[in-house]
Each structure stands twice: as structure tokens, then as C-alpha cells.
Amino acid sequence: MDFSSLNWLAIVVAGVSAFVVGGIWYGPFFGKRWQALVGLSDEDIRAKGHPAVIMGSALVLTLVQATALALVIPAGSGIGSALGSGALIGLLFVATAFGVNYLFSRNALGLWGIDAGYNVAQFALMGAIIGAFG
Length: 134
Hints:
Layout: H1 8-29, H2 31-38, H3 42-47, H4 51-72, H5 79-104, H6 109-133
Helix pairs in contact: 1-4, 1-6, 4-6, 5-6
Keywords: Membrane, Transmembrane, Transmembrane helix
Pfam family, one: DUF1761
InterPro entries: DUF1761
């Protein structure tokens, strides 16, 4: 793998953008439903874990995802192609892996929909951004 040819600005913009979309996705869009499905009350969220550690770790992991995506999307592929590649990776790799885990852990289909949907959206967004910088 050639990390020297990666566009690090594109990776940072893609990762931060996906992180922001996650805040919206798990906030106003699906936050309360997600909380109910995972069994977390507002009090649990305030009391369990350090918010800065959770958010900082989530941002770092999202940047790792953006880096991995930049490694597999061909340079110069363009926005549309890269968006499609990202969406397919989100759907065919990430969402299906979640699906297998959620089946065995007996998680609700709605939780899979929220989590898988976010991953498809974030990988499509990151792909589009990486493609735009291409």
C-alpha cells in the first residue's frame, strides 16, 4: 500500500464530514430511537464514559475509515464513481457484517437499519469527497 500518494486533505475532510453526519444521524434523526433500541437512557449517556474520550476515539476511527477508503478508491475516479464505491463498500461489507453480528446477538432489525444506514451514508459521503479531491 502506498500511503505517500494519498490526499490527506481529502481524507481529513471526508472523515470530519462523516463524523458530523454521525452527530446528526444519531442526534436529531435517529437518536431517541437508537437509544431505546440499545437500552440507554439519557442518564446512562451522561453517566457512562467520558464524552471527550468517546467523541475523540470515534473521530480517530472515522479518520482511519476514510484512510482505508482512500486506499481502495482509484485516484481520479470522480465524485459519482467514488460515491458509488463508498456506498457499495458501506452496504456490501459493513452493513452485512453488522447484519451477521446483529442476528447472532439478537439485536432488533430497527437497530441494524439505523447503524447500517449510517455506515452506507458515511461511506458514500466519504467516497464522494475523496473522489472530488481526486
